[in-house]
Amino acid sequence: MGKSKQIGNHKSDKKKNIAKTWKTKRRTKDLDQIHSDMKPDTASKLLHQEVDYDVTGCAQHYCLHCARYFVDMRSLKEHFKTKQHKKRLKQLREEPYTQAEAERAAGMGSYIAPKAVEVKTQTVEEDMD
Ligand SMILES: [Zn+2]
């Protein structure tokens, strides 16, 4: 008889979903892409998209800074309160590194420290009342 062989515990019973780790579909935009999205005209285009039934929430509830779509206004607002969103705003406060900045740093011209960009959560239209 002897000892019974233990083949893994309950936790490792399930095979890990390896596919998930490799998926690139859900990859969000890079910060510099979002910086260009934050330009007023691009931003308004993104925030007022045409109804697209293939996209979450028909593309009507978009978080500009996280480049994510939400099902409805409520979940979008909920998202604004999340750590993830606040962290993103913080990241976006720093201006993207520019060639001009690099030149200034290299002593060509006077060095002007990159100014912090004030990034606020987009205003949401209250169309409920
Ligand atoms: Zn967000």
From TrEMBL:
Region feature (Disordered): 1-33
InterPro entries: C2H2-ZF_Maturation_Protein (IPR051879), Matrin/U1-like-C_Znf_C2H2 (IPR003604), Znf_C2H2_jaz (IPR022755), Znf_C2H2_sf (IPR036236), Znf_C2H2_type (IPR013087)
UniProt biased composition (Basic residues): 12-28
Alphabetized SMART domains for the sequence: ZnF_U1
GO CC annotation terms, alphabetical: cytoplasm; nucleus
Keyword annotations: Cytoplasm, Metal-binding, Nucleus, Ribosome biogenesis, Zinc, Zinc-finger
Gene Ontology MF: a single term: zinc ion binding
Swiss-Prot/TrEMBL GO biological process terms: ribosome biogenesis
Domain C2H2-type residue range list: 63-85
Compartments, as annotated in UniProt: Cytoplasm; Nucleus
Family, as annotated: Belongs to the ZNF593/BUD20 C2H2-type zinc-finger protein family.
Free-text function comment from the UniProt entry: Involved in pre-60S ribosomal particles maturation by promoting the nuclear export of the 60S ribosome. Negatively modulates the DNA binding activity of Oct-2 and therefore its transcriptional regulatory activity.
Subunit field text: Associates with pre-60S ribosomal particles.
PANTHER family, sorted: ZINC FINGER PROTEIN 593
Protein's recorded name: Zinc finger protein 593
